[in-house]
Amino acid sequence: MDDPDEVSLIPPQVVADNAAKGLAMRAQFKRGGTEIGVARATELKACKPLAPSTIRRMVSYFARHEVDKRGRNYGNEANPSAGYIAWHLWGGDEGRVWALELKKRIGNAPDI
User: Fold this and answer.
1) How many C-beta neighbours within 10 Å does residue 51 have?
2) Which of 41, 43, 52, 73 is 20 to 30 A from 26 in CA distance terms?
3) pTM (2 decimals)?
């Protein structure tokens, strides 16, 4: 039986789907995100456990880039801003919520 206190570092499907959407938009529109964002999206899309340090980096990314939501064409599916694409690469709004909640539970846990 699973321990109810055990923390899963596997991204939820909605987070993986957001990352896949970000990768698709980046390919289509030729903008948005960095190579690190692409790497993060690839990890999220694979639904494999992430390292605690990766969760902390996600929290930091979202904190730095919340301002991107005020940019022109943020949320415009027909002509998305680079920030909108990048936000999705990191898991989108659901990725932000998931990473914040997970960071509260793992704190400064070391990578294994």
Assistant:
1) 14
2) 52
3) 0.92
- In this structure, are residues 65 and 23 in contact, taking their beta carbons and an 8 Å threshold? no
Minimal CA–CA distance to 19: which of 77, 90, 83, 75?
90
> Residue 90 and residue 88: Cα distance in Å, rounded?
5
State the DSSP code for 69.
G
pLDDT for res 107: 85
Beta strands in 32-100 (DSSP E): none
Contact 73, 80 (CB under 8 A): yes
**Rounded to an integer, what is the distance from CA 7 to the centroid of its chain?**
18
Residue 14's nearest CA partner among 90, 69, 94, 101 is 94
- Using alpha carbons, list the distances in angstroms from residue 74 to 3, 69, 82: 40, 6, 8
